[in-house]
Amino acid sequence: MNFKNAIKWPSFKKSDLQKLELFCKIHQKTDTENIIQDAASFIDENVNIQNLKDIAEKALYFDNLLNENCRENLISFQNTMNELRNELPHSFSFWENWFCAKDYVYKYLDSGNLEHLENAVKWYGLAFENGKYFMGKSSGQFIHEAIIVSVYLDMKKNPTKARTRLQKTSDNNTDTKTPLDKTTKNFYDFGLAFDLLLNDMNDAYNLYYHCFQNFWNCFSPESECAKIIKNKDLFKASNIETTDTPENEKVLKSRETLLKITDAKINNILPTTHNVAYTPISNAIIQGYFDIVELYLDKSKYPSLNLNIPNTNNCYPIHEIVSQYLRGNNQEKIKPLILQILEITDKKVLFTRTNRQKISPLQTVIQSLDLDLNKRFLDKMFSTEKIPDDFIISADEVSPIYFALMIKYLFNNPFEYAEKRNIKEISHDSDISFIMETSKNLENEIPKEIRDKRKEETNEIVDLYIERTSNVDGFISYSMRDPIANNQGCTALLYACEWDDVEICKSLVFAGADLRKEIGKTSELTLPNGNMLFLPNNFIHRTIYFKAWNCLEWYLKDNKNIAAEYMHKKEENMT
Predict the structure, then answer these.
(1) Percent of the chain with pLDDT over 70
(2) Domain ranges within the chain, ordered by starting residue
(3) In this model, does residue 15 exceed pLDDT 80?
(4) In Å, how far are 423, 490, 491, 523 from 487, measured between CA atoms?
(5) For the stretch 504-519, what's the b/e string if a residue is b when 16 or more beta carbons lie within 10 angstroms of its beta carbon?
(6) What is the DSSP annotation of 487-548?
């Protein structure tokens, strides 16, 4: 139970603890069959069972209090706090400070007064400083809540300063290394050190991009004032303005603002009410004002234009423009702009990834399936050299060739991919969410001849990255995302084998992929007798496990010498 770990056990005297320690040491060195009975007898003789029951009840009481952030639980704690203060002197101050912080959060929700939120953060700080060693299993929940409230206050009170820190940490030329303010960093560093931060919480940037959603997932809006605050926050998080201005007037006003930008201000981050702030050219790109983008690229009018300045999400104009191209928005107009921007963008920018979704420009270009664009990006990034083993892209941290294979199989087999990988839900921010959505459209709305053309395009992209990769076996994916993967590693060849993709396997082997390579074990197979069997994770075993019969046939016919080695090999290491 959570609370039990946060307090001393008053039922044990110091002498009893010493006896118990000695008892454990003795039994570590013996094989006594009655150790359980002996331990039970010792506890019966030395421990006050009623006290233990009281502690268990209190543990359950606090667990229930923490089940949900609601006013009823807060009132319940306040009604019993005097009794608990006497009974739990060692840890009571931590819980008292924590619930005092919660009380101030609810005062903010009832009034909208940020001073209450400031007081809440102060009390979270007091609870942390005076009680961090009494938190027990509630430490994760406390740290999450403290971080969420602290970041929320930072964005509500100092949005410009917060966005400035985000922008500075995105720029490698500044000394700012974290977007977190001092108070939040105190909680964050503790949570990171003790592995208490889960999911998106362990990404300092995402704390800001999701700060409003995180806050309202943590606290329920019970009052009318809280509901109004919540609506405004979530509209802001979705980049939706809450004014009654007609849409056409907003567009005209936005275009007018961008057209008034002078050369002296062309590289400034524009003021915004949203979490992400942009330079004028990035702003024009995301709004689809490509005529204004073309205007900004005119050196005679904007000689000072610098395309190497990121927005507060570490997203550069080259990121923005290829993203628009990927969405299919006016591609004939956009591609010349991409080539212009690519030419004057620093090479190092092409190796960056966005803060939030960890997307690199090359990753988006691969998804576009534009062979010419892929070649141009590779030429700019690597010139005549080949892609090195240690270059990775995307939030999944995979090599370009591996990502190109992902695109191929996701585009052409979206539902099989989901079934094979046991994907029940795909997060909005994941690399494959866009591909899955696009694939559904391909399957349901686009004629077969166009889908066949898409398959041909994906093959051309994969072939390009096979040709331009220095070592096709160099990258090994050990991703734990897929339940069937266990601890096995996967090269591009083993991944293609999994999909029974004979032609790609042939191309990879021709480029130097090793058919003999083994990386860990395949997933378990259940034998008729109920035993579990783990086979070496290599090409032949993978063809059998994934029923890749075309690959198996090619392997046995065209690679007889290698196949013969396995036909006569004794598997001594099988479990």
Answers:
(1) 71
(2) 66-235, 383-465, 471-575
(3) no
(4) 18, 10, 13, 9
(5) bbebbbebebebeebb
(6) T--B-HHHHHHHTT-HHHHHHHHHTT--TT---SBPPPEE-TTS-EE--B-SHHHHHHHTT-
Structure tokens at 198: 């889960």
Q: Which token pair is 132?
A: 């961090």
Reading the block at residue 384, the tokens are: 């005549």
3-state secondary structure 15-41: HHHHHHHHHHHHHHCCCCCCHHHHHHH
Are the C-beta atoms of 473 and 454 separated by less than 8 Å? no
Q: How far is the C-alpha of 133 from the C-alpha of 529, rounded, in Å?
A: 50
- The residues with which 532 forms a beta bridge, in sequence order, are 526
| CB distance 359 to 319 below 8 Å | yes
| Two structure tokens written together for 368 | 């576009």
Mean pLDDT of the chain: 79
CA distances from 555 to 115, 501, 521, 551, 570 (A): 71, 12, 20, 6, 19
Domain 471-575 has CATH 3.40.50: no
- Alpha-carbon span 219 to 117, nearest angstrom: 13
pLDDT at 149: 95
Q: Which two tokens stand for residue 398?
A: 């995979």
Strand residues in 370-490 grouped as ranges (E): none
* 316: Cβ contacts below 8 Å, ≥ 6 apart: 282, 307, 308, 309, 310, 345, 349, 352, 361
Model's pTM, two decimal places? 0.70
Q: Is 40 exposed, middle or buried (0-12, 13-18, 19+ CB in 10 A)?
A: exposed
- Strands 532-533 and 525-526, how do they pair? antiparallel
Q: Which sign, positive or negative, has the C-alpha torsion 80, 85, 89, 90?
A: positive
Written as six digits, the tokens of 135 are: 């938190």
C-alpha distances out from residue 298 to 293, 324, 340, 487, Å = 9, 20, 10, 53
First-residue to last-residue Cα distance in the chain? 37
Q: Is the dihedral of CA 339, 345, 350, 352 positive or negative?
A: negative
Structure tokens of 549? 């019969």
122, pLDDT greater than 80: yes
- Stretch (H or E) spanning 52: helix 49-65
Q: 3-class DSSP state for residue 477?
A: strand
Count of other CB atoms within 10 angstroms of residue 166:
25
Tell me the CB-side half-sphere exposure of residue 562, using CA atoms within 13 A.
15
Which residue(s) pair with 393 in the sheet? Answer: 398
Residues 278 and 319: their CA atoms lie apart, in Å, by 12
Q: Which of 220, 212, 231 is nearest to 153 (CA)?
A: 212
User: Token pair for residue 203?
Assistant: 């990404």
Strand locations in 108-217 (E): none
